[in-house]
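Complex 241.
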Amino acid sequence: MTGRIVLVTGAASGIGKATAELFAAHGAMVVATDRDEIVGLDDERITTRRLDVTDDNDVASVIAEIGERHGRLDALVNNAGLAIPAPIDGDGYRAAWDMSIDVMLAGPMRLIRAALPLLRNSDAPRIVNVSSTEGVGGSAGNSPYTAAKHGLVGLTKSLAVEFGDEGITVNAVCPGPVRTGITAGIPDEMKDKFARRRVPLRRYADPIEIAHGIFHLAMPASSYITGHALLVDGGMTIKNN
Ligand code: NAI
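Predicted structure with NAI bound:
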């Protein structure tokens, strides 16, 4: 990863932050971006920028800056996300739907379209989209999130085929439960109870464990993996009893 140019969205917290730190620790030049202010990413190989993935102007200006500075992008990590509980008949459903799709499905689409010319200048271009176990299954009260994450797996697969002849790989990582901002409101006791019942590894993941899955798919050496949705879920999805 030494000298590779990497853009990470949603890097102020959780999985995105751990991903920025991991890539930088392996010598990558990381552009860490978030809608919120980013604090605590002090590695000299990390540049921080404000970027709301729903804002075309933010996306265009960060991509333009990377173009001017580096002339290429080697890996795009579409990680920004949020969880809004939304029962289908609830008052806030439409707002939750619009926001979920805009951030977690249209966001990656915006970044990919804007970054494509720079990815085409890389000798090992990689796109990694952070989906979820909600991208392969579903749970109640969560349908905007689940729809966005399923959509993101679809985007991943379609573009993997479309970009195949250019050697641009497109993959997704599907995390199970992780200790991050999104799950911070769930009391530890409930987290433990859920994990003991549902997850073969019996615990929530730490963000760095998801970052390693992302890192793997972004490596130049991962050149024959494309269109894959990698479960990093402690075995949750395959557990029947
Ligand atoms: P987090 O809340 O710690 O980090 C998410 C980051 O995304 C935050 O820094 C937030 O400011 C940023 N963000 C939200 N909307 C944005 C926007 N419009 N533009 C730019 N940045 C924005 O949560 P976590 O868990 O690290 O989330 C990262 C990704 O992992 C998300 O896509 C989430 O859906 C996914 N995921 C998380 C799981 C978990 O259990 N924590 C499980 C499966 C998937």
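The domain at 5-233 is CATH 3.40.50.720 (Rossmann fold).
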